[in-house]
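Let us begin with a simple case.
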Amino acid sequence: MMTTANQSAAERNITLVSVANIQPSNYNPRKRFDETGLDELAESIKQQGVLQPITVRPIADTDRYEIVFGERRYRASVIAGLEEVPAIISELSDEEAQEMAVTENLQRKDVTPTEEANAYKQLIDSGRHTVETLSVLFGKSENYIRTRLNFSTLIPELAELLDADVITISVASEICRYGEDVQREVYEKYLKEGIQHYSSWRGRKAKEIAELIEQKFTIDLERYYFDKTECASCRYNTNNLLLFNDGGCGQCSNRTCLAEMNAAFLKEKAIQIAQQQPDIILCRDPYCTNATTVERLIASGYDVETINSCIAFPKNPIEPQIGDYDNSEDYEEALKDYEEEQADYMEICNEISRQGEAGEITLYAKIGQADITLCYVEKTATQIAESNKVTQTIATQIAKLEKKDKRNKEIATENTVDDVKRVIKEIDTTETKFGADEDRMMYFFLLSSLRKENYAAVGIDKECDYLKDEEKMNVIANLTAKAKAVIRRDFLIANFKDAFRNNGTAALLLDFAKKHMPEELANITNKYNEVYENRHKRIEEKKVALLEQTEDAGHPQPEGVPQPIETTIRSSSLNK
């Protein structure tokens, strides 16, 4: 009977392999195994054996094997006490083993969302697949693949809640739009087990959580890195609306202004990096970036690459301050830790610098939602060899020199503009006549306030979200009287946003409305004046009643209170 079994196994290329010589693989996307399910499978294996062999591959220069797929059966066999398990031994490269492991395990029904996400990310990071090819390979839509890929950015605690069905896929999709700092705070304050019921976000719908996150996190000025000097006195800053504030930067209630200041800051910082370090490439993450900044950089002639994964530069440790510690011993210990961290930091930075000079890595400046961070991508041996080979050709060297020359010219122009911007503030322009060229310059900047519905009025036929510099230059080169009027009025309308109560802007707004929309203004004015007149009438009636009560009681009227008209008329009539 044993001989027959062995012959059958040989015919099917199945071999009995010692359990002691088998080890799991890092390529398996499944990281969690249900203990109850494993125990049930182990009991079944005790009764019937392993019905389906696992697949393994030899580990070079050893007598051991690595699991390609079938880790759950392997674990259950260990629990069941088997010394050997049936296995198919395949000679596979790392790439082949990874693809087989991921593909086979993703076909199973019990794969969790984060395991699926990490599996897709593995395949994309390998460089052999894109979202499009994965869509074809697994029969899923591209949007499905992208949604799952986003889950790979979840912090471990939130990933665990997703896999345990504590939060839904829709909720996770909203949370993973944000960085680790926001995710951490959302988990600690609102989703962690033990949070009081009225504060917990568990069980809430995705739309609710999206609104809550936006409300609580996206407008917090502490999370932005641009110069917030103007924000300190801005009427849209909540610190200026509260009698007592918490001492922070406050929260901005003008999201349009906040987004514009953030985008302008990011663009300026990106340009500075490109000017000062030409070897660093501007890039963006496909799932977490400031789209407005990227669009404006591209419109200004800068290249912005898209990368799926990279390695972040280390953060410079913060030196401890003696005032933050209760005693000198704690401070000395913290200072010692800091010095060790600083030494490690410098060592890593030096190694990154060496790798960059050797062409082993590509340096990037990644444009995020609120800041720009430095990162790098390691080149494969093939890429390094190809890079070295290409750089040896004369044509490539010439192209590289021409590119460098072009960049040097750009730097010269950029530095010229920067210096002129600084010096021009100091010159006296009060005595010279305002010229036609300056008039065109003024309209160039006024065009930033032009509304989309008026693009055609100034000669722009195509649809676009905003005017690029080239389009603005074309407009000011062909200005007509009508176009000038449209541009100036849209500029006024844009600045009327600051109209408030009876300030100067509000007065000008009403004058503008009286000229351009008299009927609409009259209707609006009458609507609120009618409300006021009704309220005023009731107030006068109450004043009359109070004064009559005073007269009936024989008390003198309060000084400074005028006698109502109705009372005066009635008193005069009685005296006649």
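The second case is a distinct protein. As before, the sequence precedes its structure tokens.
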Amino acid sequence: MNMVIVLVLLVIPDLPVTQGEQWTAGRTKCRGGALCARRQNPDYSWCYTDYSGGWDYCCTAECTYVGDTLKCASGSRSQYCGNTRTLDIEGRPCLPTFPCGVHYNELKERDFYYWCYVDLNANWGFCCAPHSKCEKGTYSSAWCYIGADRSNKGWDYCKPEDP
């Protein structure tokens, strides 16, 4: 009796990158032909993310943890580039190489939301903001803010990470 052992290696890419693409600190792809650079303001690096003026900061060094938040250098400033939340609001695990981060939403100008990729097919889900816990409070269903700051009213229902 012969036995055959098959070893399967799963490689999870950091980002679906093609030659010449660049990504922002918020992990949004720079628009075609746009490169991360210091422009009018030399304090930080940034790129355009769409053709209607949307833009985001770029990292000039690797993201590293500062407490439970991922930050990176962007010129002479520090930029947010993710947090340690590992599930989206539906309870699906984020890809280990793509934790929840803040990204520009081209459909709603100037609104930034937390989200992550949940599989290698580019499916994604919103995440609770670091300043917002997924809980019921005085409401019948659990919810959290998904907007990047407290003034952004973006929220959604969620499944608590710690039931």
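Residues 3-19 have pLDDT under 50 and may be disordered. Residues 85-163 form one domain.
Keep these points in mind for the review questions at the end of the chapter.
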